[in-house]
Amino acid sequence: MTDSILSLRGLRKSFGATEIIRGVDLELPAGERRAVIGPNGAGKSTLFHLISGNLTPTAGEVLLDGRRIDGLPPQRINRRGLARSFQITNIFPRLSVFENIRLAVMRSHGLQYTFWRPVGRIRALREETDRLLERVRLQQHAQELAGELSYSGQRSLELAMTLASDPRVILLDEPMAGMSNDETAHTLALIREVTEGRALLLVEHDMDVVFALADRISVLVYGQVIATGTPAQIRADAAVREAYLGEPHDEGAEVAA
Known about the structure:
alpha/beta, Rossmann fold, 4-stranded antiparallel beta sheet, globular, transport, ATP hydrolysis activity
């Protein structure tokens, strides 16, 4: 079995007397694409906050490549190889597409506050920025203001900024939210391409996307993982259908968000 690059062990999070995450265990092997699904209020966003350092667990551990990262600030977790793209697009709308990506590249090299740089380093930063532009197919939009891109274009830009740190683990929080069918198809193909060989943890309400993209799926209900399996196994799991997918099971039915 492939070694896990991300491990959650007995993870818990309480806010006062209310326990939101109630003992989550999850192993994400290197290179696997895993979706986390569940009804609203299941704790998916809280779980992502715990992994990415925006919240500190009440109990339990988060390990990245065997090293504990729970309690570390997001910047340090990012430097260790985990990057997160948020549910709400997180770009600089008044800067150009190129400038947004270049800032992300500079940040990944610890250069965001360096005003004097050798010419060779400037050239290297530009070349890396150009590679990322091409990777997400935005080279024709390099000089456009980021805020003027289409919605899917903005998510592509954010994905490029996520890739700037060359992460081994990527967390994507509802990347298809608010997209048209065409935009969803484009973004799905792009995510599949750019996450090849990387571990991906995905929260997404569009079940067509989940079943098309994920190698395995974990189902979170009331802060606990009630099932993990392949898309086919999750479709066939009676407990999952009752808790989330809906009964009677209908392959063509829409899943409640």
